[in-house]
Amino acid sequence: MTESDSGETDVRRAVVLDYLAHGLSDDSRPQYEKSPAGYALETDNFELYQVAFDEDERLTIGSDVVIEPASERDVVTEARRVEYEDLSSGAQSELEYVVADLVEDEEERFVDFYNDAQPITLRLHQLNLLPGIGKKLRNGILDERKRKPFESFEELSERVSGLHDPDEILVERILEELRDDDLKYQTFVGRREQEQNQ
């Protein structure tokens, strides 16, 4: 059954990281031909996009927009994937705040990472990819989640001795994956692509 058969479309949303009312600085076309542009972070797979916006719309940093499919877009006229180094300096500096807000707003999804994380190899666990999580903390998380799944970041901190700011640890890992595309293991960034390639 395809997406169209079920009547559901796979809408991909993004948060605007930078809005450039006069277009991209490296766009050599005359000003009257440029449309407003900017950068956005897709919220499900943390993929970065360079986007062009409808000139009749005025957006702010943090606005929620539809990236894909093209038929569902309202203010975005074009979107293409980019790497971290392609972002404007404004988008790069905004990224940390947007990721932190996403982790906070979708707490259940990210707490479930601690509940569902699995071994990658015999010697490496997904939890060990998180900054500051060594063998002792990993084992503490695994022991506690066997007793009962975690329901909040606060509960994680209370039940796992030594685990402070579990939300900030995730933000740090997501940012690391966004900034360094040569990492061997990607846990959050580009998950959809990885699943399609398996």
From TrEMBL:
Domain of life: Archaea
InterPro entries the UniProt entry points to: DUF655 (IPR007003), NA-bd_OB-fold (IPR012340)
Gene3D superfamilies, sorted: AF1531-like domain, Nucleic acid-binding proteins
UniProt name for this protein: DUF655 domain-containing protein
Organism field: Haloterrigena salifodinae
